[in-house]
Structures are given as structure tokens and as C-alpha cells.
Specification:
- This protein has one helix at 48-54; strands spanning 7-8, 14-15, 19-21, 27-29, 39-40.
- By secondary structure, it is mostly beta strands.
- It has a domain at 7-54.
- The strands form two sheets. The protein has a three-stranded antiparallel β-sheet with strand order 3-4-5, with no helix packed on it.
């Protein structure tokens, strides 16, 4: 598990206690698994409403994506299409008349 990465409950509440990793790779609350263990999420895996709860200081911007201060968000622009590969042209033999 990465140190220093914040974990959140499904509703966007930040979790600061002990965690453990399940065999399938999921991170759960508690040092060991038990009845009270809850699945934890990273910020980018939360739903839109949970993200809003997790980051109450989000700026509202007209028409642009609202982001928390200091958080870099990838550009929504589409990637350029890959260059078109064309077959090499074979030189033609001159016609003999």
C-alpha cells in the first residue's frame, strides 16, 4: 500500500485509521478483516457527490470543471489521432515503346 495516500469511505468521508489489503487488492478499514471492516477508496475512485463531500473547498467555475485548489486535473481535450501510415510507393519502370 502506498504511504501518504488518503483513503475515503464510499460516501466521501476521509478515513485515517489502520488499513489492510484484501487478497483481491481492495483496501479495507481496520488492521485485520472483521465485521466492521469497510471498503476504502482513493479520491479518483469516488463518485461525483462523494468527491464534493470529500473536498468541500472546491471552487465553482462557470462552465469549467470545478477543482480543488492545488489539484492538477488532466485536460479534457481529445488526443490527436495517430499519424496515418501509408505504404511506400514502388518506383515504376519506364515504358518501352
Amino acid at each position: 500500500m502506498a504511504k501518504g495516500v488518503k483513503h475515503y469511505k464510499r460516501d466521501g468521508t476521509e478515513y485515517t485509521g489502520a488499513t489492510h489489503k484484501m487478497p483481491n487488492g481492495e483496501v479495507h478499514s481496520g488492521k485485520t478483516h472483521g465485521k466492521g471492516s469497510v471498503k476504502l477508496f482513493h479520491f479518483e475512485d469516488l463518485s461525483k457527490t462523494a468527491k464534493e463531500k470529500a473536498m468541500p473547498g472546491m471552487r465553482r467555475t462557470g462552465g469549467r470543471r470545478a477543482t480543488p485548489k492545488g489539484l492538477k486535473v488532466p485536460s479534457p481535450r481529445r488526443k490527436a489521432p495517430p499519424p496515418v501510415r501509408r505504404k511506400p510507393v514502388k518506383p515504376r519502370k519506364p515504358k518501352s515503346y
